[in-house]
Amino acid sequence: MWIASKSPKLGVAVYNWKGDVRSGLPLEIGETVQILEENGGWYRGFSTTNRSAWGIFPACVVSIRPCTVKGSGATAIAELKDDPLVREIASVLRDWARLWKKLYVNT
Prior knowledge:
Shape: globular
Distance between the termini: 44 Å
CATH architecture: Roll
Strand content: 35-45%
Radius of gyration: 14 Å
Oligomer: single chain
Number of domains: 1
Number of strands: 7
CATH superfamily: SH3 Domains
């Protein structure tokens, strides 16, 4: 049974996950997801980069991070509390990872 989170949580993917189950949400390392519900070792939520990408994913592939919440109810949006420098470095590394993948893996 899915249990709604008392407050929105943010998780950062620490492993790639293909989302190879029914209603699975594929995740890549570093992707941020907002977690809305829990069921055993699974979470249900959406990608913060694409709010229309909803699904379930194992709890073991994300690390829960401290966050601040703006708004309330269904419109609540969680944002990471990380230091701005840490966010910038993480963003640059994610961009580089996409470029390296495009240059060396996809060709």
